[in-house]
Amino acid sequence: MTARHINGRSARTLGRVATQGVDRILISERRLRKRVRELGTQLSRDFAGSEIVCVGALNGVICFLSDLIRETDLMTSIELVDVHRSVDEGTHRVTLDENPFRETLEGRNVLIIEDIVDTGLTLTEIVAAVRRQQPASLKICALLDKPAHRQVHVSLDYVGFVIPPHFVVGYGLDYEGRYRNLPFVGVVEDAEWLPAMLAQAPSA
Ligand code: IMP
Ligand code: MG
What we know:
Layout: H1 8-14, E1 24-27, H2 29-46, E2 51-57, H3 62-70, E3 75-81, E4 84-88, E5 91-95, E6 109-117, H4 121-132, E7 137-145, E8 158-162, E9 168-169, E10 185-187, H5 194-200
Parallel strand pairs: 2-3, 2-6, 6-7, 7-8
Antiparallel strand pairs: 1-10, 4-5, 9-10
The structure holds inosinic acid and magnesium ion (MG).
């Protein structure tokens, strides 16, 4: 997929206060809406007749999850979990609480909803926590797949867009806490993103 060049509309959009520091639009609001609708339709078809629990990691997933569940015609409930990130001796670590869920997932159909899969470490931890609860089924839906920095293999059942290794913001995604409120996905060219840097560093 190629990056969107700035046209008249996006140039105006990028001039707003909320977009300061964003270099260009990668996925427009219109393309996001269309793709989320398609994913919702596909999920409604694939899960027809079942009730699902949507598991999402805070905070990045807020926009995607809230739009996606409204595009599905299914009985759903939601479990939002906190993810703790740290760097330990140069290694990026991701941990979840011992039991991060409010309700049990045992015997239920779980759909993990992720905003973006980069190294794959976050998703791997969420999958492990869900599996410990012995769900009846487990599927994964990610809005953005950024495979260039992958450190662990993860198998995604539904993907919105495969993107190049840019640091992206908007539609829930942040850089240093900012930009989650942008209605599009944009690129911040000079963002310093530790997991990506660690993934690219030559191994000792
Ligand atoms: P992973 O554990 O490296 O796969 O990264 C997943 C998490 O890192 C996502 O849920 C985001 O919170 C964050 N992340 C990864 N890439 C980006 C990005 O390009 N922009 C903003 N957040 C990102
Ligand atoms: Mg996330």
